[in-house]
Amino acid sequence: MTRVPQNESLVPREYVEKLLRASAPERTEDLKILWDRYQPEFYVADDGAGVMLSASKKRVVFDQKTMSVYWLLSYAAWRVLDCYSPAILCALPPDGLAERLGLDPRQLPLTNPAGTTIEAVIRDDNGLAASEPQFEELIYSARTILNAKEFLHDTWPSGIPFPGAERESLPAQDRATFDLACMSTAFAFCHEIRHVMYAKDKNAPSSRPDEELACDCWAREFLTAKLGVYAREQEWNYEDILGKRSMAAAVGIFVLYESSERHGDAGSEDYPPLADRMDATMRNTPLEPNHNFWVFYACVLLGILRRRRVTPNLTAQSAEELCALLVDKIRETS
Ligand SMILES: [Zn+2]
Known about the structure:
Strand content: under 5%
Bound molecules: zinc ion
Strand order of the largest sheet: 1-2-4-3
Largest sheet: 4 strands, mixed
């Protein structure tokens, strides 16, 4: 059900630009040009039950509660590594896996021989009985907050920083998650900005689901396409930064899944199937097939399947291939 925003107030342009610049410094000039041409306006509305983040014409409207829930879900998304990395890593061939992941072989959390199916590892994984309920509890909190009419501070789970927390005051692990949460919000904002651009240029794709996919693709392009030159200028490792931005996009997919209505997974008149959105955002990411990003993304996908009580009986030749198989599974079970 579409919620009508109430009492909107304009968010200063600097605030939105700052978030986007922090997530993609190489796009600072492009952002200026984009703002001058399209003049997107961001508004914050009163909190209400359900999600509020949408674009119409030149306006993007969101509410604080939705942003807090996205934030909380971004933190929850990080827990998939604790829960599912043993199953994902065991499902891959052993040769050189640790090396390719940049780990000491003794650091690999292999609970079963490599090449064991995800289903078999999960069946045996005693650790999962402790880690998975914690992950699900965070998601439960996020959904409770989302469904409430107003934000109730005492429903916020302990141990998760509030969205307004100062980055520098957080422990190192939380800082990395903080950055991912900011970047995944930038993905969501870029998606909405593309809707504004289509409205102004009057050239939106003919169907609503096609427009959604095009907005996903544009957000991904905006946040990754100029990264190579930027990384060279800054003498940073291109794969490392692309890996981080891509992880943030995977977090965004997870947030989208957990904050939208389940019956939308298979697609509707307005939205494409979730699996198509995953492909639009992630497929063909130019990273080595066993890059950390693919392992993380596979954990996110397995997390989504486990939320539906589906445990796939899969192995694969690489983490990238495993992701493709898991997306197929999501498509089949939507
Ligand atoms: Zn959209």
